[in-house]
Amino acid sequence: MTVRPPFFVFVGLLVFTGVAAYFTPGETVFxxxxxLYLLGxxxxxxxxxxxxxxxxxxxNRSTRFARQQVGQIFEERFEIRNNSWLSRLWVEINxxxxxxxxxxxxxxxxxxxxxxxxxxxxTYLIRRGAFVMGPTALVSGDVFxxxxxxxxxxxxxPSFIVLPYMVHLTHFPAPTGxxxxxxxxxxxxxxxxxxxxxVREYVPGDPLNRIHWKSxxxxxxxxxxxxxxDPQADVWILLDAHEGLHLELPDNRMIExxxxxxxxxxxxxxxxxxxxxxxxxxxxASIAQYFIAQGQSLGFASASKILTILPAExxxxxxxxxxxxxxxxxxxxxxxxLGLIESQANHIARGSTVVLITTAxxxxxxxxxDILMRRxxxxxxxxxxxxxxxxxxxxxxxxxxxxxxxxxxxTIRKDDSLQLVLEx
Length: 424
Known about the structure:
Layout: E1 2-3, H1 5-22, H2 29-51, E2 57-63, E3 67-69, E4 73-82, E5 88-95, E6 106-111, E7 116-124, E8 129-131, E9 136-141, E10 147-153, E11 160-163, E12 188-189, E13 196-201, H3 213-219, E14 223-228, E15 235-239, H4 276-293, E16 298-303, E17 307-313, H5 316-328, H6 337-344, E18 353-358, H7 363-374, E19 378-384, H8 396-403, E20 408-412, H9 418-423
Parallel strand pairs: 3-11, 15-16, 15-18, 18-19, 19-20
Antiparallel strand pairs: 1-10, 2-4, 4-7, 5-6, 5-9, 8-11, 9-10, 12-14, 13-14, 16-17
């Protein structure tokens, strides 16, 4: 319980009335005593009122989605319920969640007995990561404002995941000279492909549409087909998350709040944070979305504190896994881009395309490109220019030298449009 300034005003009046009663003749002193008793009664009533002002008050927070992307509008539903037989003059709801730009705090007046109130909070998502919907602080007090009581309600709901910002790419450069097919990979696949590799006995859980009926009739037991991956070159995205390499400037973005309550858009074009790593993450997410939409088998690797490797697969499920990893990855790794290339080059099928996204420049990048080309891999480089973020070094010279090998390079600078640069 917190004591507020009106309490000290009442205490001052109480002292003043007592002193006045002491120096007042006996004929009129009863007036001051009555005032004295009244002030004391008000303070006692205020204390009891405040103590039970949150009794029976419950709050529930819910949302329709478990994950959304940066640039979308997050809508959260708040329900405040009064389960007691006493009305509440006012209840303050304070949203203590760590989501930036939150607007869930409200003050509700005159919450009747056995009544509930519902309101919605809409927030522009401007930062990727995981956020908990809570805790929530409930504050109430007496009608005189002398005391307030606070109750913090913890949440038992899972974290809300904000996926990185993406742009829709209609095309992205792929190295020339690679046929759409390739050599047979001879790798088993859980998906149904046009390439049957053999048969095996049925295991509980196998789909019935994979049963090979001729073999089943011949063996007199259930036999299912196995499949291999398509003989098609993969695409890999290697994201550089080396600690100390990326730069970040103070975030002074102004997000326009038009149409928030009337014509709610599903997605907003927002400026990216002034961070080289956020530009790199958004570039990786956009490129991943493009190749998955093209039906390519896509893999992902990044070396932050934890080395993340997702083997090449197809489909929206693979895109969801990559975006979820990108929502949490941070530039705190100890493995430079050259080390990441050396660790993964031997595990990528020959003829595959490797998209390198980095802020590094100089010999390590050129040596990494040389390793990929010797492995018969086709690199595409996406540079995030650190000079545009205030660094003294520039990647212009490194990019020009790499272009001399006939390799596609993209250079993204601060405040550039990702879509224009990546498609250009």
